[in-house]
């Protein structure tokens, strides 16, 4: 089973990793150009705008002259990104001077966009056909419920979900891969990554799932570039408007069904037509702000006596809190718990780190306490870190044990050799026993053989 | 790990307030008086519209507010945050935005013209102080509402010369911008430098620029004035060559090099007065030999 690493990379890293010709193909679409531009670092955006109407290659030296002396690192990051996304083309002339040229398709699309404006990929349907559209709040609530209650709960424990989603079990297995470990005939257990996944914010979780979805598209016989371009296009639809499904092709309709299960879209059916309504989740998909601007309303209050009060009725929140605290009682809108040494040790055993717990508490702090700094009492955060450090007093190093040396000389020279190579851990000179780190075991063996 | 919720976005999200000069005396005379820098109002607006589009393109959370500076009035023309996708957006968002701005501008210009007719005395200077104050009011409102707000800045696109009678109001606006850390960028498209805007950009750490070639206005705007506050710390931007610090006197609104200053409230006068018109302090008798040399700067004796 491949090791799944949880890195909340963003959409654009995925785009950047596409092969060249597919990437060039993507830039035919103005919306993708727009999304790519918005994902760039601030300085990169600036360069693109500045060079937008310049059609000749611009020497790298000229660009460097725009900078103050403290901007070199930011400049490098921006240029690397631009080249990686093939927005800038590097041209090296005979004197080995580098100049940059904007990707022509990208350039002309954006020029057109700025002067004439782009056209929305799909037109919203007139309100005469769509009888009653949900309000934005209803839509948000729907998206959250679909995501948390249906999808996440099913992901964690298939039995607990009240309303099963339409995902085929194979699809679900793909999502669960790495997050759950399935042993024969046993209830699946969350892995380290699974726990970490639950503590991430919604956007990061969403991205993780979408990434798995995209990575798996090829197995299902879907072109990755098509899928990415369609997802990006969707993220430019206006949340809360209705779009006709009939304008989509069959592949897109299939995707839409999957996304609706995740709460990214809401499907509705009228008398004749059917349509989809994008929720906030899908419009945030291409957003790559460093601080999540879509910060949710928090719900947790942590007191200095280690008690937690979570103002939430959500089953998922309760499950998450149970990961690291002892839930004492549950009222209709309140979950009261306590962070104890035992509950934390449980969490640490499951591979959750103290920092993850603290950042979860901070990110989900109730608005009343979020205004204060620190939002989680310092004594609590310190204690959580201390308890974690307690567990790490014993360090496990794989090593090899040597004994029955033929002579004291051989033993001592072996000790010296191990010390020189930084692998010496323990020795007992009386009984001539030595413990050495496993990584230099081969060298040790070689050395001892030569001694004979 | 963003533990402390900050009121500012850490990204390059900007709130740009653009002040557009619609002074008919400037735009009407621009083609006849100086042929070197001929820029008609329609080309100017075309450049500015592209600029606004590109600012909104850079970040989906960025916000642009357009304020028109007329001769007798100023008004909000466009606010990207309150913009709703209009029903007939067949051509997409941007054409709808452009036509909305153009329509509002036209309404504004004719209303402004109507005001000129109603008023007995004709004014020729643009009401920069008014539009600056409107911009600052808007920014203050953004500061006070919402959990997160973008980084604000003001861009003055000024063509007509300074109106000396607005000196006090403009300076007050500048200092209030300085206090709330709002940079005022200025792009002067007229033939003369603007002392007001030089001081405004100097005091608020904004950028002052008088483009040489007005037909490439968009390139100036996108190169210099599109720079978000985050990138300003690492980019080389135009430095002011010299700032005209001259003040206007409070009595006749003339721009003066030397004058009299009230030692109590620092009001500026071009002539010696018996009493300060601002704070009412009574000035002592000036020495006769000094009053004769009127261009010598001196403080009035203590009241």
Automatic annotation (TrEMBL), chain A:
Residue ranges that the Swiss-Prot or TrEMBL entry lists as coiled coil: none
Region forming the signal peptide: none
UniProt keyword Transcription, yes or no: yes
Domain of life: Eukaryota
Chief localisation class: nucleus
GO molecular function, one term: double-stranded DNA binding
Any one annotated GO CC term: transcription factor TFIIH core complex
Family to which the UniProt record says this protein belongs: Belongs to the TFB2 family.
Protein name: RNA polymerase II transcription factor B subunit 2
UniProtKB/TrEMBL annotation, chain B:
Compartments reported by the entry: Nucleus
Gene Ontology cellular-component terms listed: transcription factor TFIIH core complex; transcription factor TFIIH holo complex
Entry keyword Metal-binding: yes
Alphabetically ordered keywords of this record: DNA damage, DNA repair, Metal-binding, Nucleus, Transcription, Transcription regulation, Zinc, Zinc-finger
GO BP, sorted A to Z: nucleotide-excision repair; regulation of DNA-templated transcription
A Pfam short name: Tfb4
TM spans (from-to): none
GO molecular function: zinc ion binding
Regions annotated as coiled coil: none
Family: Belongs to the TFB4 family.
Subunit: Component of the 7-subunit TFIIH core complex composed of XPB, XPD, TFB1/GTF2H1, GTF2H2/P44, TFB4/GTF2H3, TFB2/GTF2H4 and TFB5/GTF2H5, which is active in NER. The core complex associates with the 3-subunit CDK-activating kinase (CAK) module composed of CYCH1/cyclin H1, CDKD and MAT1/At4g30820 to form the 10-subunit holoenzyme (holo-TFIIH) active in transcription.
Biological function: Component of the general transcription and DNA repair factor IIH (TFIIH) core complex, which is involved in general and transcription-coupled nucleotide excision repair (NER) of damaged DNA and, when complexed to CAK, in RNA transcription by RNA polymerase II. In NER, TFIIH acts by opening DNA around the lesion to allow the excision of the damaged oligonucleotide and its replacement by a new DNA fragment. In transcription, TFIIH has an essential role in transcription initiation.
Protein name, UniProt field: General transcription and DNA repair factor IIH subunit TFB4
